[in-house]
Design goal:
Distance between the termini: 20 Å
Number of helices: 2
Number of strands: 9
Oligomer: single chain
Helix content: 10-25%
Protein name: Dihydrodipicolinate reductase
Order of helices and strands: EHEEEEEEEHE
Radius of gyration: 13 Å
Shape: globular
Structural class: mainly beta
Strand content: over 45%
Largest sheet: 8 strands, antiparallel, barrel
Length: about 110
């Protein structure tokens, strides 16, 4: 299975929803203090640093687009690139121009 273009940082760009779902499926996405489930039905659930995370996502034009709540904090819709290296997904905000978050597939 090919996951798109190689990047200088070693991450392979995930370009389709099918590729993305083949990776996240029923897995948890984890980092220190964070556990998330991104489900095929468009839901996001989990917790981060002791607060509940809920949200919704879609795949649009090659981007993972999500809106989320973390406790009482709302995060507006943001479309992000997704890259893969080994068992780590890198989400880069603002269509690949913003901040990054790395989450391990578990």
């Amino acid at each position: 299975m090919s996951f798109g273009d190689a990047r200088a940082d070693g991450f392979q760009r995930i370009k389709t929803q099918a590729e993305f779902l083949s990776l996240v499926g029923k897995s948890d996405l984890k980092n220190l203090g964070v556990t998330l489930q991104v489900r095929p039905n468009g839901s996001i659930r989990g917790n981060a640093f002791g607060r509940s995370v809920t949200g919704a996502w879609t795949w649009k034009d090659g981007y993972f687009c999500r809106s989320m709540s973390w406790g009482s904090t709302e995060f507006k819709l943001n479309c992000q690139t997704v890259g893969l290296m080994a068992n780590t997904l890198r989400f880069t905000a603002d269509q690949g121009k913003g901040d990054t978050a790395d989450l391990r597939i578990r």
